[in-house]
Amino acid sequence: MSFQKQLQTLRKSRGLSQEKLAEVLGISRQAVAKWEVGQSYPDIAKLIALSEFFKVSIDELVNDYEENCHLSIKRNEVNFEEEGIIDFLIKAKKSTYAAAGEETKASRPNSHDLQYVEGDLKYIDTYLGGEKFLGEEALWKKDVPFWSMNYAGRVLSDEFSGSFLKEALRLVPKDNPYRGPIMYQRGQYKYHCIINGDFKWFQGYEEIYFNDNKTYECYFHGGEVK
């Protein structure tokens, strides 16, 4: 079922008019009407709000996910230099936290720091906390910073699996080299990731469900540093 049909079905099952749903979300009725006819698509914040309001996971809300994502997510258009940088970033991500890589010396009291270097390119991931965490990944070329991503997340239930999260993060795709793939599932665990923007300026959200229970979420954003 497409997003617009799913939204109509969920709205009507609650006995809500477009106007009432718009009021709940703090938007115009015209915005809801456009979503339901496929003329536009909600941004990340509104998609999360819809998911929480209707008590459904994002992939249930957006079953035809990749088709619908094209309405709001611009695919990366990168030049030759950025292609090499993205390849490096993916290698770095797969070799550090996602691979349970060895930490380097803490840069701040009680921080967790991981580093990957290749030629004149350097990647550093540093974060604070555990069940509730905040951190930053950044890239340097010849010790000059040029790209960064901040993230903040939390564990929501005891069913959370750190090994499953790392497994999903090792599948980071080249067309969206930020966290994990759009969707990934193993057994009762399901990972979802949505992104808006491109490599130079983006925001995103990832979540993990265990059966029908959301057990983890993380917001992230970043882009080019000048």
Automatic annotation (TrEMBL):
This is DUF5680 domain-containing protein. Residues 7-61 form the HTH cro/C1-type domain. InterPro entries: Cro/C1-type_HTH, DUF5680, Lambda_DNA-bd_dom_sf. It comes from Clostridium neuense. The lineage of its organism: Bacteria, Bacillati, Bacillota, Clostridia, Eubacteriales. It comes from the Bacteria. Keywords: DNA-binding.
